[in-house]
């Protein structure tokens, strides 16, 4: 037997390799740099790595390759666009994460123990959140570009495992945060077992682990269809779990609420981009020819997800839970883009993912600022009259809510409009009707929050709005500018996406 | 012996695992049930590998083991932390976030 060394195209893989390198340096920094310099070193390493990686993605934007890593990953237009979106979202999230006040000084210590108090008093704050973030981002970058089952599974775990830990790092309400980590971990591992089992059946169906091989079998239609159906169903469960679609959404409100807010923002935005990226690739290329068998079910899930998310969000009294249900509804809207299964649907989904991700990070950045003596205040009743006390922050938050609601002149409107018109074009009329209906329902609870902030008398209960740190301010300003710029003048980005976004097979 | 029997066994193991996750209350046992599901998937991979006469399935089984090991590291860390702060690893006790 002759062993042939695999040929790797390091230029095309460099964005991910840089991130992994940065994450490893982060681990070393955590071990060897003195406590005074640790936070700033970690922040510079992380930001430097992310920016370097983004530059590298920009350089390879016109490349197309199926053989970058011996057929395991594919680099094409959508891959580059999704990777760039993930990196931009990651950079603005890191600005918020940099406020170490949100994270426990020592995750291993018992909540309320002397050990923890000592770590806080002596300023011995651990900063493992930075390397964890980088590991998660490298998994997210790999997930949408994988083109075989092994890489797909490894990437899924690479992005999930750090996130499970990050969900448990909150400084305040540590028990709730640990509980969020436990729930996220158990349900996440449960869903990845389904995912893996589905992969086994896809492999059994096609005798191939590569997407190209599976697609050939689907197109040829020679295999045992039962195996294909089981495989598709179980792999879809794994993916739908990651995007938080109903009925696989149970984890998301709890995890969103319990996790440290900067992490919630990062997770909500970046995981969605990665998971939908992989979903688009799998459904648009691998399963496209078996469309008859998955479109009806996926349409039903999309409709339930949109309506459920919008309806349950109305009843929420906690701003993070409300945003969680709103993100479930948005997962439904994005599924409309997957169902569309045409070029317009792909373009619209990528645009929507970017616009929604940026607005989400911005919105959660603002949630981190509303505090009282005991930490963040997420109870919506205590947000009353915020607009009178801190008009700027309240106005910005209102802007993000309007974008989520899809009001014209915000990026949300363009995203929803393009995704629904793509779905309509492909004949998924019921999905479009449900989408428009649930957008109307959703507008109600977004606008209710705006009314609460601006037209209700404030209560004096010690709730105040912190002055944002310089880095958080950059995030908020960037997100606001992007949200409105894409709403007013989306043409350049839309045409950029349209030119690039074609899956190669 | 017919290779399909191994598929039935794997489906059975997977079901036992999935039911265990739903009905058991101790986080460690739930986690063990998840591991059982992963190993059921592994058995399917190896069986299909045998049926299809292709080695990739066996390679995936090794990858799964490595990934499962990583999952144990992260999972046990989380479960042990929560046990130390609550003196209980029951998933029912963890209900601060329910409303």
From TrEMBL, chain A:
Name the membrane topology term.
Multi-pass membrane protein
Which biological processes are named by the entry's GO terms?
ATP synthesis coupled electron transport
GO cellular component, alphabetical, reads: membrane
Start and end of every NADH:quinone oxidoreductase/Mrp antiporter transmembrane domain?
146-441
Pfam family name, one? Proton_antipo_M
Taking the first listed entry, what is the main subcellular location of this protein, grouped into a coarse class?
Answer: membrane
List the HAMAP family.
NDH1_NuoN_1 (MF_00445)
Q: What is this protein called?
A: Unannotated protein
To which species is this protein native?
freshwater metagenome
Q: What is the lineage of its organism?
A: unclassified sequences, metagenomes, ecological metagenomes
Automatic annotation (TrEMBL), chain B:
The opening ranks of the lineage are: unclassified sequences, metagenomes, ecological metagenomes
Topological category with respect to the lipid bilayer: Multi-pass membrane protein
Among its keywords, does the record have Transmembrane?
A: yes
Q: Name one GO biological process term.
A: ATP synthesis coupled electron transport
Q: List the keywords (alphabetical).
A: Membrane, NAD, Translocase, Transmembrane, Transmembrane helix, Transport
Coiled-coil intervals: none
* Transmembrane stretches, start-end: 6-23, 28-48, 60-83
InterPro entries, per the entry: NADH_UbQ_OxRdtase_chain4L/K, NUOK/Mnh_C1-like
**Chief location of this protein within or outside the cell:** membrane
The cross-references to HAMAP family, in alphabetical order and at most eight, read:
NDH1_NuoK
Report if keyword Transcription is assigned: no
Protein source organism: freshwater metagenome
Q: What is this protein called?
A: Unannotated protein
| Gene Ontology terms, MF aspect | oxidoreductase activity, acting on NAD(P)H
Please state which protein family the record places this protein in: Belongs to the complex I subunit 4L family.
Where does this protein reside within or beyond the cell?
Membrane
Cellular compartments per GO CC: NADH dehydrogenase complex
